[in-house]
Amino acid sequence: MTARTLYEKIWDAHVIEQREDGTCLIYIDRHLVHEVTSPQAFEGLRLATRKVRRPDLTLAVADHNVPTTARVDSRGARLAIGDPRSAEQLAALEANVAEFKVPYIEATAAEQGIVHVVGPEQGFTLPGTTVVCGDSHTAAHGALGALAFGIGTSEVEHVLATQTLLLRPSKTMEVRVEGRLGFAVSAKDVILSIIGRLGAAGGTGFVIEYRGSTFRDMSIEARLTVANMSIEAGARSGLFAPDEKTFAYLKDRPMSPKGDAWLESVERWRTLHTDDGASFDSSLRLDASEIAPSVTWGTSPEDVLPITGTVPDPESFVDSSKQAAARKALDYMGLTPGTSLQDVTVEHIFIGSCTNSRIEDLRQAADVVRGRKINSAIKQALVVPGSGLVKRQAEAEGLDRIFTEAGFEWREPGCSMCLAMNPDKVPPQERCASTSNRNFVGRQGPGARTHLLSPAMAAAAAVTGRLTDVRELVK
Amino acid sequence: MKSVRLLHGPAYPLGRKNIDTDVIIGAEHLKTITRAGLGRHAFETIRREPGNVFDDPRFQGAPILIAGDNFGCGSSREHAAWALDDLGIRAVIAPSFSDIFSGNAFKNGIVAVVLDQPAVDRLLEVAAELPLTVDLETMTVTTPLQDRFHFHLDPFRRECLMGGLDEIGLTTASEPAIRAYEARTGI
Ligand code: SF4
Q: What is the rounded CA–CA span in Å between residue A384 and residue A107?
């Protein structure tokens, strides 16, 4: 048999039919559903009197809209959502899952959280499976060796009705990073640096496989951070070959296989790697030592620099459309070329989102904050765990107290300030050091200015009130 | 899906690169449970700029939009395609599109036309004054000044767009194959 990449192995195993023009009907093993991109899909089913073909392969949870303030009152009764339109969307999801018999994690359950935190945590996401969700950061699940990608609402409806999608194969890209990361350099810095190199569209049409010793040495949490942001380089999916760490992470999760089925699964998962001699359509190589704690300065994740850098001069870009984009970005961000990034003051801190809200992220931020106070210039500093289970674990470790004693707010799980859809927003023209994944115009609120960075860097910015090289704070 | 064969009319000469779906339709407007009515919230941040193309009377009701590289990047929200649809836009011309957006556009009968940067630059120039024609039959974009640019559409998508086909309906025809797959893999 010819040598194949990991992507090709998973793809081949899911082809039901191939059309003459190369379009394939692909089987979908896992479908995650949330409140924002599903109502019109369920409505479509209803109008065409179709059913959900495999509710058992589907899992729904609300995350985008739900406020991160208390969900139940002192007697444990559920509190109503203030915004009537958010409440309506949540009610629509609850009615739809009941009508179509889709498994659902209640908004008040301990297991509730951001869909991309919940999937791996529950063992719903497994190596070698195809995973979809009406959300572009579905790429995250690739950290476990699943072929995972975001889809639109019409495709959500297609999967609900048929458990399949019509797709054309993607091109393959190898992103190889070798070596040990420097002190206080995290997975977030690795993926931001990769996006800086590839550009926001550099991965369009590709599935990225992350290879090399740097990725092998990463924990599953760190891999989830990397795979999550594949889409910010334009790639719909990012993949990691599953290994012993993956198996250890998944063992005994509520929905992962048990007993003999577990042993058989692990046996099968061990074959999920790119064969020697298989070739990629494109490749990018980086040395871990080239990667520094990084921060974005503009309105695209590709606008990224080491924290030791200065705000670039738009004229320094070769391409004229990039020059124009940079001028607009700096105008929106209220930044002047030549300013040292470490002189940029911030008023808001957001530690959360499906990129950086897992236990390890919270531990890294807490290590910086421990025994310190947030700067008096900070107006709001939020820590939003990715799920109720992460929250409990963090509380058991005392991390919540480290944060609250420093002046952070400790919230209920959800998407929160990652996108301006629930009450957590950054006010116009104010600046946020954020561990989320998108610094787009208006993403965290109309006029809001976002700087993407790692949890440790966000914590450092909270302490000093400006973008800060975390290496100088925790020598 | 709406069918689309021939489009003729003004084109919004937007031209910018990396137009993300948050710019096309902000998150606040995703709290809807229907597909309709999103057009009036489309491109809100751009519409705050004086002299923007969307409020220019010359382009009112234009069926075509011309943009830069990586159009529709970011979030998978199909609300972006619904917003364009609601504005009456049936084709977007750009040097490249995000994968998810071009799929969403297609599902809503909106054609994502990929042309190289020089062609897009020329169309931006012409569109400031004159209407354009997008023809799916011949797969060309033409101008009254005799410009003629060929684009590629994959045959299946072209057929669906021209015929207004329902994909779920098509897939239902593969039900026996899907069932056989499930039986074979034990899913
Ligand atoms: S945390 Fe942000 S990026 Fe992740 S699913 Fe929620 S809104 Fe999307």
A: 15
Q: Residue A333 in contact with residue A340, Cβ under 8 Å?
A: no
What is the residue type of A417? Answer: M
Residue A161 in contact with residue A50, Cβ under 8 Å? yes
Query: Which pLDDT tens digit goes with each residue over A188-212?
Result: 999 999 999 999 999 999 999 999 9
Supply the angle between the helices B155-163 and B99-107 in degrees, to the nearest 10: 30
Q: What is the ipTM of this complex?
A: 0.93
Predicted TM-score (pTM) of this structure:
0.95
Which CATH number does the domain B6-185 belong to among 2.60.120.10, 3.30.1330.30, 3.20.19.10, 3.30.70.120? 3.20.19.10
User: CA B91 to CA B52: how far, in whole Å?
Assistant: 19
The CATH superfamily label for domain A6-167 reads Aconitase, domain 3 (3.30.499.10)
* Ligand 1 neighbourhood includes A34 CB (under 6 angstroms): no
* CB distance A133 to ligand 1 below 6 Å: no
Per CB-CB distance under 8 Å, the chain A contacts of B78 are 37, 40, 134, 152-154
> CATH top-level class for A171-290?
alpha beta
Q: Which residues of B touch A50 (CB under 8 A)?
A: 168
For A415, which residue in chain B has the nearest alpha carbon?
B27
